[in-house]
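Friendly challenge for the regulars: who can give me the structure tokens for this chain first? No prize, just bragging rights.
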Amino acid sequence: MNLGALRSADYRRYFLGNVFALNGMWICRITLAWLAWESTRQAGFVGLVAFLIFAPTLVSGPFFGVLADRVSLKRGALAIQSGIAATAGAMLVAAALDILSPALLALLALILGIVTSAHHPVRLALSPSLVTRDAIASAIALGAINFNLARLSGPALGGFIIATAGAHWALLLSALSFLPNLVILP
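First reply, four minutes later:
Bragging rights claimed.
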């Protein structure tokens, strides 16, 4: 495997930040699904929450893809990372205050879905812009590996934290996982 993208200091920092952010995104998703189950004990509601998390990618994803070609990718990434962190933070506050109703969970799932649908095109466009032309294939491959590993490790880590410490701690970790990119990107 070609690791040429890692020669770029900007890409290395962004890649490392994304290790945390992508895991945090998946931790947030699994915790939201757990909270949906915990609050209603209805598989149908968990399915609705999952739909609200993932369906916006089909609807608003193409719009955000076009927008990603017209905005500063770093500023867009900062806004999106902040949005996902704020959504996890809002879930944490609502859970801590014990005001997480099914309607609020559904709303937060939809917000997370919309913000995440913006995340994918910006993430995919930003990586190649941080490396030289000959390292673009490496940046794309490393980004795909990072994303797919996070699809495995994020829910596993989130489930472990929920089981051992509780959903509040999983949401806190999720919100904090975006801090590295918020420091790295500016």
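The two ends are 30 Å apart (CA to CA). The CA atoms of residues 51 and 109 lie 9 Å apart. Your move, everyone else.
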